[in-house]
Fold this sequence. Notes:
Heat Shock Protein 90, two-stranded antiparallel sheet, 7 helices, two-component regulatory system, HATPase_C_sf, HATPase_dom
Amino acid sequence: MSTMEYAGPGTGPRWAAGSAAALILLLTAARANGWAAVLVAAGVAVGTGAVLARVRSAAYRAGRAAERARLLRSLHDTALQSLETMALADAADRLSPAESLARLRGTAHRQAAMLRRSLGELGGAAPAGPRLSLAQTLAGLVEEMPVDGPRVELVAAADLPEPVPWRQECLRDATREALGNVIKHAAARRVVVRIAAARHGVEIVVRDDGRGFDPGRTAPGFGTRQSITARVREAGGDAEIGSSPGRGTRVRLWMPARVTTTCPPRPRRR
Length: 270
């Protein structure tokens, strides 16, 4: 007896993992207890195949949902961020036409580079060039901040533990989102980004002196939920956001830095 199952779009039928075990179970039962026991064993085998099929189907749906979430984050962090930055009227109104054009060009170049990198990561391409340290990566983020925005200060402790590359990328993108939120919403004059070792890992704190908000009355948007909190927690880290009206906002990110070669789960390509 064998059990056939459908594993998802674009695939042919596959033998269930329990087929061989079911056959052994049937033969053993027939020899020991006769065909009545075979019928019982057959029922168990059919049930096992059905359970395996449901598990595989659930795993496929979960993989598709994870892939969809990553694509939505990529669109939010690149195209949407670019359009929102360009539409910041308060900042643009204070600039001359030449300065406004230079600002828009700089934003377009940065977002194009981010989108190109995101497409490469989604396609499984290895990053080009030498690997930067976490402090160097965040220094690059600070340089991306618009010149007409708040003053950003980076404070990095010495001898920082280094997360594995894919976790470092997660911290980079979550920090970029936190800084983007400061530009769009905080009306801050100063932002401090601190990096330090903490709890066998590394901690990043982004604190601004902007208008703040009441977390009990303001629902987190897509960027906060997905590009910061969910992104970091899916990578095995932790994220906390604290704020109060008139007292600025504090975003804390933590990621383990233990040596590991395990990558975050990715959906199987069909």
